[in-house]
Design a protein that fits this description.
Keywords: ATP-binding, Nodulation, Nucleotide-binding, Transport. This protein is of the alpha/beta class and about 300 residues long. The protein contains 10 helices and 14 strands.
Length: about 300
């Protein structure tokens, strides 16, 4: 396993930031790490990157214990923290050369990561002259300098414009073909675009750990949007089995919600035929990750 977390807990005074968290990530997986603000995401990432220590439990990165084998963990991990720390007065190559000395890697690696992260057009500039998107690229280039097996990225696309978002997502996805990526974000579309698996924590507890496709398909509730050729009322749908809610969108269009993992579009079509209604439009509206996230992290 590239990352192993067993019964990790962390307290800040009376506040329990992490409460008995356990999971493992195989080599080559791209995993989205989600949770509301204050859920404990950054705390766990700092534990995995040896910036802070856990109060209880064990964690390993590439087989190295984060508590007593910190140097080997640091060699195994490329880390981009939420607030990307950069020396703005340095030129890009200067900054990467400084970090290459720390990692004791060849200077030739600098040109490799500049090309890999798409920094070539801006590579003669000082970091302070760069846009937020290119500063994030510098952070990624630094994280990749020592060719780590694991990338841990904390909110890597915060503050980027839509074009920069697409560029950074594609970059992370391409890098993830050869490395394990553990990615924290608040942007659900980012997880849907990049990740194969999602881990959700709430109030320091793990609430979901599943393959993304499986998680979406597992939702027993489904909503069908249907447009009829004539006016109906909610009582007209009384004969439909497993129907739990009706929502009138306009005079002719309804949202019908069913408690079932079976595709109900055929049943709605049969219902319309039996009643003599014509269907002008019919579509299945599966729950997306954002809806699932809200349900899993709702205050109770």
């Amino acid at each position: 396993m590239s990352i192993e977390v067993q019964n990790i807990s962390k307290n800040y005074g009376a506040q329990k930031a992490l409460d008995n968290i356990s999971f493992s990530i195989k080599k080559g997986e791209i995993v989205g790490f989600l949770g509301p603000n204050g859920a404990g995401k950054s705390t766990l990432m700092k534990i995995l990157t040896t910036y802070i220590t856990a109060d209880e439990g064990e964690a390993k990165v590439n087989g190295h214990d984060v508590s007593n084998d910190t140097k080997n963990v640091q060699k195994s991990v490329g880390y981009l923290p939420e607030h990307n720390p950069l020396y703005l007065d340095l030129y890009i190559r200067e900054y990467l050369a400084f970090n290459a000395d720390i990692y004791k890697v060849s200077k030739s690696r600098i040109e490799e990561v500049i090309q890999l992260t798409g920094l070539t057009p801006e590579s003669s500039k000082k970091i302070g002259q760069l846009s937020k998107g290119y500063r994030q690229r510098v952070g990624l280039a630094c994280a990749l300098l020592h060719d780590p097996e694991v990338l841990i990225l904390d909110e890597p696309t915060t503050g980027l414009d839509p074009n920069q978002l697409v560029e950074i997502r594609e970059l992370i996805k391409n890098i993830g073909k050869n490395k394990t990526v553990f990615l924290s974000t608040h942007i659900m579309q980012e997880v849907e675009a990049i990740c194969e698996r999602v881990i959700i924590i709430n109030n320091g507890k793990l609430v979901t750990d599943k393959n993304l496709n499986t998680l979406v398909k597992e939702q027993a509730e489904q909503t069908i949007e249907v447009e009829f050729d004539q006016l109906l009322s909610s009582t007209d749908f009384a004969t439909l089995e497993n129907l739990t809610n009706t929502n009138k969108i306009n005079d002719f269009t309804w949202e019908l919600t069913f408690e079932s993992d079976e595709d109900k579009r055929g049943k709605v079509f049969d219902f319309a035929q039996e009643k003599g209604f014509k269907i002008l439009q019919l579509s299945l509206k599966n729950k997306n990750l954002e809806q699932i996230f809200r349900e899993k992290t709702a205050k109770k």
